[in-house]
Amino acid sequence: MSGVDRGVTGRQPQAVRSALAVLEEVARAGAGVNAKEVAEALGLPPATTYRLLNLLVGEEYLVRLPDLHGFALGAKVAGLAGGFTPARVPTAARQVLGELRGRVRAGVHLVLVVGASLRCADVDPDLPLASTALVEGHLHASALGHLVLAEADDWRAVVHHPDRLPALTPATPTRAAEVDACLARVRAVGWAGQVGQLHEGVGCLAVPVRGASGLLVAAVAVSSARGVVPTEYLDAARDCAGALAPLLD
Amino acid sequence: MTIHELPTRSPVAGLRRRGLSMVEVLAQSVSALAPSAAVVVVPSIVMARSGAATLPVLVAGTALVVLVGWCLTHFARRMAAVGGVYSYTAKGLGPGGALLAGWALVVGYAGIAVSALVGAVAYLASFLRLDAAGWGLGLLAVAVGALAALTTVRGIQLSARVALTLEVASVAVVVAVLVVLLLAHDGGTGTGAVVVDGPVTPGGVATGVVLAVAAFMGFESAATLGVEARRPLVAVPRAVLWTPVAAGVLFVVAGFAQVVLLRAAPVEILTSDVPVARLADAEGLGALSRLLDAGIAASFFACVTGSVNALARVLFSMSREGVLPAPLGRTHRRFATPAVALAVVLPVVVAVPAVALAAGVRVREVLTASLTFSALGYVLAYALAAAAMPLFLRRIGELTRPALVGGAAAATLSAAVLVVALAGTSWSGSGAVVVVFALAWLPGPVLWLVLRRRAPATLARVGVYDQATAGDLLPGQGVRR
Fold it and tell me: What burial letters (b/e) apply to B367-396, b meaning 16+ CB within 10 Å?
């Protein structure tokens, strides 16, 4: 990026206030609201409203719908709220996870996927993840992360500093070619597995939970400290993901 | 349209998404415009037509292009397209207007790529002191073409970086040469003054404006990087507006310098193929003029890659819509570039000038013909896109008065420039170029008429862009009823 964006400076409080008001109005009115309606609801001059809407779309907090006149909140908005709202998992889904936990001798975890980020929503209480923060923060180093990255058109656009991926263990894939190879494997087989990339000696597999449209909405992970990918539970995990799909979509 | 109907995959998937920085997007527009080549070549040609009105003509041409650029930003802020001006026009004038503009753009990009290739060959030969003619120049064209193929298929990131570096270096050389010449200037007048302060005629002024507009061709090509740019709705409009503004300042200043210098020079220098280089030679700046050759050759080469990149992406877009055969929409598996479209385009762009040069046609003739050919295409596309802008804004309910006035003015003025260009080209005895242009542009209207009868559904898809997919939206938000 070529230096600092000087479009709106800190000396324009009214512009910032108006931009936030536009954002709030789109959230209140719902996806599909058009520019004229936003301008009328806020009493802002139309030209100002159009400029602010375009600015917010440019920054990806808003999305222009394919009809080109409707607006909706962008996935980036989730990043503002992500750290604070508790991830809700329906009771029926918790029961499905409970059944799988009763059958396998490994940790079973559920993560919810929003855009290119994941939230650990239900971690196995008996065999918990060593660190949910590491799983959520280092997509290149976990089976769950690989699922999410494999979904993106270009994983480099999703992770922070794609050229300087941190090595959490000696096995962590840190070079672009290594990550590419991992993701190609994931795309080919439809699930992800890794050993020792996040914590030494811990293996994990992850299967996708897809909504009716094929969108990745969540993932089920099975982790084991035996130093191998727990492939013996692959089918059970897949069945569990299949049962979760209608509950989480 | 409900948000539940959003696709999970963009219609233009396959290109490397969101990878290019602001600077690289800018590089695309700058390289296709080739400012250093334009500011050296165009002002003296304008002088020969417009005489004493040269500077106002350069300013008027710049103003018109900036106005067109401003019109295009209205699209660029709202949609991330691969087809550039073609996709934009579709959203305002519908598929018919889009195919007319789109094919004009294809013709324009192809023409400019040919003339830039010829320019690169000529200046390279001059730099290497090659006294080649015919076959030698033809082979040099093939070599330059092969190098362009390598950088464009390898990836837009590489070709953009190479192009911008070359361009910055050559602009620096041009500025250095002009400054040195101005410092050595003694304020006298030579026989060149007869032309520089020559009579002003309406026809001369009009053709001068056409030529000045032609100097900026390609400035809008960043609009074809909608998918590949990191923040396309921010980066593309900036590139499309600021490239002509910055290049325009350079253009007018360099034009002023050349007016001053050529007034004092003999008229033979003014009418020569390379007036600025001849001026440098006359001042005993042999080394500088050699450097100038290298700089202009580099600028022309960057222009070849820039135009071919844009051309391939327009064809890619048309293929993804079903207007052109599906293979043209395939991307390279490793480099994620529209490789098939590039493979179709490059041989044509290289073969035409290579064969012409090998057959002994003079460099200047190929250059002038291809430049005129491409100017007709560009200006037609600009006029249609400018006319489409207010219609597009009205359709989505975001029309403002400045946009309406600006769009109407840009469309009218561009159309006027086009008429003058057509008339001027026909008068000046190069009517053949107009005929060739008409033939090359014919596939556009023909495609439209055929598809309207045979495949209206395909026509309805015209104007695909990198639209929002389900993953871009915040899930679970309320929907307006």
Answer: bbbbbbbbbbbbbbbbbbbbbbbbbbbebb
H/E stretch holding B416: helix B401-427
Q: Give all domains of chain B, ordered by start, each with its CATH number.
A: 19-455 (1.20.1740.10)
**Could you tell me the fold of the domain covering A91-248?**
Beta-Lactamase (3.30.450)
Tokens (6 digits) for A18: 């108006």
Shortest alpha-carbon distance between residue B173 and chain A (Å):
24
CA angle centred on B465, ends B460 and B466, rounded to 5°: 140
Q: Which residues contact B287 (CB under 8 A, 6 or more apart)?
A: none
What is the predicted pLDDT for the residue at B430? Answer: 67
Q: Collect the ranges in chain A with pLDDT lower than 70.
A: 1-10, 81-87
Give CA–CA dist A39/B135, Å, rounded.
65
Q: What is the distance between the alpha carbons of residues A146 and A138, in angstroms, rounded to a whole number?
A: 10
Q: Which fold would CATH assign to domain A13-74? A: Arc Repressor Mutant, subunit A (1.10.10)
The per-residue pLDDT for B429 is 61
What's the length of chain A?
A: 249
Residues A108/A93, Cβ–Cβ less than 8 Å: no
Nearest by CB to A58, from B21, B77, B398: name it.
B77
CB contact under 8 A, B398 and A35: yes
Least Cα separation, residue A80 to chain B (angstroms): 11
Q: Do residues A14 and A51 make contact, with C-beta atoms less than 8 angstroms apart?
A: no
Mean pLDDT, residues B241-255: 95
* Residue-wise burial string across A104-128, b where 16 or more C-beta atoms lie within 10 A, e elsewhere: bebbbbbbbbbbbbbbbbbbbeebe
pLDDT of the residue at B73: 96
User: Residue A190: what are its φ and ψ, rounded to 5°?
Assistant: 85, 5
Answer yes or no: pTM beyond 0.90: no
- Across-strand partners of A194? A204
CB–CB of A68 and B396 under 8 A?
A: yes
Whether residue A113 contacts residue A219, with contact meaning beta carbons closer than 8 Å, is answered with yes
* Cβ contact, residue pair B479, A31, below 8 Å: yes
- pLDDT score, position B283: 78
pLDDT tens-digit series, residues B416-470:
989 988 887 766 666 788 899 999 999 999 999 999 999 898 888 888 888 887 7
Using a CB-CB cut-off of 8 Å, the residues of chain A touching B230 are 157
Give me the pLDDT at residue A146, please.
93
Query: Is residue B308's pLDDT more than 60?
Result: yes
Average pLDDT over every residue of B266-291: 79
Selecting from B3, B26, B77 the residue whose C-beta is nearest the C-beta of A31 gives B3
ipTM of the complex: 0.84
Q: How many CB atoms lie within 10 A of CB A98?
A: 11
The first and second tokens of residue B380, run together, are 């037609």
For residue A151, give the nearest of A75, A85, A84, A224 by alpha carbon.
Answer: A75
Contact at CB, A2 and B3, closer than 8 angstroms? no
Look up residue B130 and give its DSSP letter: -
Q: Does A187 touch chain B (CB under 8 A)?
A: no
The per-residue pLDDT for range B43-95, each reduced to its tens digit, is 888 888 888 999 999 999 999 999 999 999 999 999 999 889 999 999 999 99
Domain layout of chain A by residue ranges: 13-74, 91-248
The model's pLDDT over B105-143, given as tens digits with 9 standing for 90+, comes to 999 999 999 999 998 998 888 888 777 677 888 888 999
Residue A137, Cβ density class (10 Å: 0-12 exposed, 13-18 middle, ≥19 buried): middle
Contact A206, A147 (CB under 8 A): yes
Mean pLDDT along residues B368-383? 89
